[in-house]
Amino acid sequence: MAAIAELRGKRLYLDANVFIYALESLAPWKEPAQALLRWIDAGQCSAVTSELTLAECLTKPLQLGQTENAKLYENAIQSRPDFTVVPVGREILIEAARLRAPEGLKLPDAIHAATAIQNACDVFVTNDKSLVRLSGVQTMLLSQIGAE
Questions:
Q1: Kind and range of the H or E element at 13?
Q2: What does pTM read for this prediction?
Q3: d(Cα 118, Cα 91) in Å, to the nearest integer?
Q4: Residues with Cβ < 8 Å from 93, sequence gap 6 or more?
Q5: Are 79 and 47 in contact (CB under 8 A)?
Q6: Rounded-to-integer distance, Cα 139 and Cα 131, Å
Q7: Which domains does the chain have, with CATH numbers?
Q8: Is the pLDDT of residue 148 over 70?
Q9: CB-hemisphere CA count at 13 Å for 23?
Q10: pLDDT in tens, 67-97
């Protein structure tokens, strides 16, 4: 298991599941997810995510009528110092298609990967084991990160 301290000074890409575990306090991954968000807010590392993350995270709360949870995601997934929410633009979509063709990635996963690559992220943090084979960016599972 990697210590969170190994991520100091790195530029991370945060997949949607990092926010889901952190904001909904879902065990067993809530501690490393919450620790990552605290580290970013403290300036220990920087992070990027796609606007797609917001759409993915809002879906279930909106389906269930959980307006307070939806608001939590809206507040958490917005740009601030050391955290950038990147729009899904043409360049990212072209890169996503390039990644998707040989890798067989689902379109949302390809958009996340393309966003990470286009924004020079050092590490793609996810808990989706199917993404460990991404090319162009190191992938780290949340389950590999120890809390602070």
A1: strand 11-14
A2: 0.92
A3: 8
A4: 111, 114
A5: no
A6: 7
A7: 2-143 (3.40.50.1010)
A8: no
A9: 19
A10: 999 999 999 999 999 999 999 999 999 999 9
